[in-house]
């Protein structure tokens, strides 16, 4: 797989597009493409560090899965999202499980390659710290919302985050390949409560509910609902 051909698509993400040109080139030159089949495990909690990944096609579900199959958001990531950097900093085993959702293509930069690159260019540590801090901010936002915001606002907010690639996309996506129940589980909402909220958003013409996907019809009104 010629991973350099994916540069233009990766450049649609804020993190990669703001990297120094040499670091962009180094990641692409040393990376390997990896294909996963639907449901295939990439890594599990407790696995040794294996490097950094970027989603090129398809999507990956990342989360700490409970006995009731609930995961903490963000749980489903797509192009141009990068992940796996936590173990780069602490060298400890993986903290989450990662599975392919559908046929998926990933870009993989091995841990040893990254450490060698950072040994030669320690100034690049800051860029990986920014990648990790973005996820840390999302975690704090989720905890804050869980304690003080009504369910309608929380659901609208995370729907907006997913549409915007968790802050990575330069342009929001209109179609989200995510079932209603999956998003409800991410936010620890009951099926009944979430369906009432989804139906309300659909009745207002903000979203359209389809089987296994959610279409954003009015992004600005969704943004308003998320900040109410």
Automatic annotation (TrEMBL):
GO CC annotation, single: cytosol
Provide the species name: Pseudomonas agarici
- SMART domains registered for this protein in UniProt: cNMP, HTH_CRP
Q: What is this protein called?
A: Crp/Fnr family transcriptional regulator
Question: Under the GO molecular function aspect, what terms does this record hold?
Answer: DNA binding; DNA-binding transcription factor activity
Start and end of every HTH crp-type domain?
149-220
Q: Which UniProt keywords apply?
A: DNA-binding, Transcription, Transcription regulation
> Which domain of life does this protein belong to?
Bacteria
Where is each Cyclic nucleotide-binding domain found?
15-118
Q: Which Gene3D superfamilies match?
A: Jelly Rolls, Winged helix-like DNA-binding domain superfamily/Winged helix DNA-binding domain
- Asked if the keyword Transcription regulation belongs to this entry, the reply reads yes
Q: Name one Pfam family in it.
A: cNMP_binding
Among PROSITE patterns, the record links this protein to: CNMP_BINDING_3 (PS50042), HTH_CRP_2 (PS51063)
């Amino acid at each position: 797989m010629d991973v350099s051909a994916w540069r233009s698509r990766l450049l649609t993400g804020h993190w990669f597009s703001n990297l120094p040109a040499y670091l962009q080139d180094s990641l692409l030159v040393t990376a390997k493409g990896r294909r996963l089949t639907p449901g295939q495990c990439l890594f599990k909690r407790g696995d040794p560090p294996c490097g950094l990944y970027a989603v090129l096609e398809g999507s990956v579900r990342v989360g700490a899965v409970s006995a009731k199959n609930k995961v903490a958001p963000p749980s489903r990531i797509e192009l141009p999202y990068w992940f796996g950097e936590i173990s780069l900093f602490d060298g400890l085993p993986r903290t989450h499980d990662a599975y392919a959702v559908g046929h998926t293509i990933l870009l993989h930069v091995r841990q040893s390659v990254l450490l060698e690159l950072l040994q030669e260019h320690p100034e690049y540590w800051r860029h990986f710290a920014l990648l990790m801090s973005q996820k840390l901010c999302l975690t704090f936002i989720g905890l804050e919302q869980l304690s003080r915001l009504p369910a309608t606002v929380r659901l609208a907010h995370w729907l907006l985050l997913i549409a915007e690639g968790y802050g990575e996309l330069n342009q929001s996506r209109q179609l989200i390949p995510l079932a209603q129940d999956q998003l409800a589980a991410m936010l620890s909402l009951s099926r009944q409560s979430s369906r009432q909220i989804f139906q309300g958003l659909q009745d207002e013409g903000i979203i359209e509910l389809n089987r296994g996907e959610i279409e954003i019809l009015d992004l600005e009104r969704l943004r308003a609902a998320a900040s109410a």
